[in-house]
Amino acid sequence: MKKSIFTLAFLALVAFASAQTLQFELDGRVFANNEVFICPSEPNMTGELAQEMQLRNLTNQTLSVVVMKEEIQMVPGTENSFCWGSCYNPTVTISRPNELEGNSVSLAGLLSFHHQIDPTYSGDPANFLVGTSIVRYYAYPSDDPDNAICLEMWFAYGAEGIDENQVVLGHAYPNPASSVVRFNYELPSVVNASVSVYNLLGQEVMSQDLNSLQGQAVLSVADLTEGIYFCNLKVDGRTVRTEKFIVRK
Questions:
Q1: Same-domain status, 133 and 25
Q2: Can you give the pTM of this predicted structure?
């Protein structure tokens, strides 16, 4: 009986510790962690693809929130930047913290993502660079970076339409993992595909080619340090699916 009570208490503690504290939103739409969102592809007068977003504090305490970007795939000549309270130039990847009150959502215009596809800033479509860039944005309490949430943005101009239903990447299991982690996957008929694992700093720690149209990717995590990682499924060099997993020894 005592063992059962201890087990339940431990599970409750783990659930509490890993509870999500923030979430991305857009006009009432709630984004799942690691969800992919395709930015509207109509450039503004300077040749920029822009998208406002909001962050919601799911706790009842005021949080000091940091936003970070990770450029996964960039069309050469394009630039990406973001605003979180202040607007940052494209070389900045991590914001200063901003306070977000408990059980509240950030004000309109406080958080936005910007992708410049015209190096001349002229707004002339003749100067727009064709292709798809992929950027991940993270948000986390400044004192708890392991509790980061992620939104993957696709900025596409003049490229072929992106069919999000072409590929499948299953959830990680076991999760948390200590020695190996597995992902089931399905691919279109003709693709060059691989899976890559990144840490929270955006550093690639391993990669594996996928040589069949469906199956299971088995990745050894025995040499990885404890923490949160992201597995990207790439098709023809583009990240099309992402799954988060935890390594715990």
A1: yes
A2: 0.61
